[in-house]
TrEMBL record:
Coiled coil: none annotated. It comes from Pedobacter aquae. GO terms for cellular component: type II protein secretion system complex. GO terms for biological process: protein secretion by the type II secretion system. This is Helix-hairpin-helix domain-containing protein. Signal peptide: none annotated. It holds the Pfam family HHH_3.
Length: 130
């Protein structure tokens, strides 16, 4: 078993079905996310389809404790732009809302930003730290 949140490219190569290109893509995407919360997020890695995922799923694990959270009350645009789940407008809206209304007191405060739908909020919530 290989922890995809902790593995370097050599360790990822130990997963049957993962070559150098996929190992590199997994690490790049992991860094953008700040770590994986669920195994299924590997399906978001470019070129990793459901067939490949089914091949590697039983060889990997995800330690959620190793994610790098986004500190929503201090994050600047540069901190948010690495995050793949947010658009440019959504990132700006998060920062603008904080400037206008003060710090976020809970994740539910994000629902007051109209361009953040419940699906986006549920995707980013595990990564948000107040």
């Amino acid at each position: 078993m290989v922890d995809v949140n902790d593995a370097d490219s050599l360790q990822l190569l130990n997963i049957k079905g993962i070559g150098p290109a996929f190992a590199s893509r997994i690490i790049k995407y992991r860094n953008r996310l700040g770590g994986f919360i669920r195994k299924e997020q590997l399906l978001e890695v470019y070129g990793l389809d459901s067939v490949k995922y089914a091949q590697i799923e039983n060889q990997i694990l995800v330690d959620k404790e190793k994610i790098t959270p986004i500190h929503i009350n201090t994050a600047e645009f540069a901190d948010l732009k690495r995050f793949p789940y947010l658009s440019y407008k959504q990132m700006n809206a998060i920062i603008a809302y904080r400037k206008q209304h003060g710090v976020y007191k809970s994740i539910t405060d994000l629902s007051k930003i109209h361009i953040l739908n419940p699906e986006i909020i549920s995707k980013i919530a595990p990564y948000i730290q107040l």
